[in-house]
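pinging the channel bc i need a second pair of eyes. not urgent but kinda urgent?? the chain im working w is below, pasted from the shared doc
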Amino acid sequence: MPAAKNKFRMPAMDQTLNFSALSDLSWRPAAKERLAAQAVPIDVRLQREGIYHFDELIHLQSKDWLLKQFGPGKDYPVKVNQLMKNIIWQIRDRIVRDKQEPFEGLLRGFWYAYIKPALARSGSLNTKIDQYPQMIKSFVRLVQACDLMRYAELGFTDDNANDRKIGINNHVILFAEKTGHFPMLQRISQDLDITILSLGGQPSLLSAEYFVNEMKAAGIDIRKSFYTFGLVDYDPSGGIIKGAFLNDLEFYGLKHIQHAELILPDIFSKEEIELSKYPLPQPKEMLEKNRKWLKETNGIDGKLFGLEADACPTSRIDGLVKAQVNDLIESTESIRKGRAMLAVVESLNAYILARLQTES
């Protein structure tokens, strides 16, 4: 434990965010690319993506038809990306035009129902490589890079829905990289009633969309200022995860965000750092990411070492959050009143529902 609390600097809020500073979003478009896409008519955007109208249901067509329309590909009989995007757009178009029911399932279910069979029938399903992430990238391309659609239009279910909770002090958002930290977030929110969520190891664009939709449905003005606190590992991957999540929130309308990191070397003693630090892996694909992260953060004493969020005692995390949040939230008395009001509303709704059921 630190010898004296005042020796450790509280994480500071960034007044102006540079979402790409620590984030390699090579397959997640930056704001500049999104704005450029929005300036182009939708029909031109579709054409640029190789998406066209077909009367036939693409995913049900024969191998010869698929090869004729989408072949030949470079590595497979068909152009896999183009086939995926056309299937996604066609199903989305049919749903919004009420030509078929919303999907009402997970993204993984969409893969099994529409994409995998078409790839298999065209001879383009790779049994050695998981092509599901390629479909996810196709969705991100159509939703975020091209700004052509939204996940909610297809009726998807969000499998992260139970890993978040909007608090009375909804302008304060505490998020964790790992699902295992969610119970701790819940405990912290019991006192502060802030918004909490865990990212499940990586940010989901779909979950970010549904999270912002929930805030809108609750009557929250997303144009106001938000204060985010990130409980992520102090390493390049944690920086990428944090940056991608904040980028997603900005895309869906949270334009005024001030952010603070919780896990920094300054919150540990020198002895704790020596016991907890770990050398960062340096495979070829991580060299540039590591270099950027080291330049931005100085790593640990200028070297490529990281720190797990789990290395910090939960009591210290509680203190870090409360020290910064106390000046951003209403008094505990206001929180109690807000909770009491919510309880009254829930009781009234339950009473009204019971009366209606009795009368019917």
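so The beta strands are 164-165, 169-176, 194-198, 226-231, 257-261, 278-279, 305-306. and Residues 332-359 form the longest helix (28 residues). — does that match what u expected or am i reading it wrong
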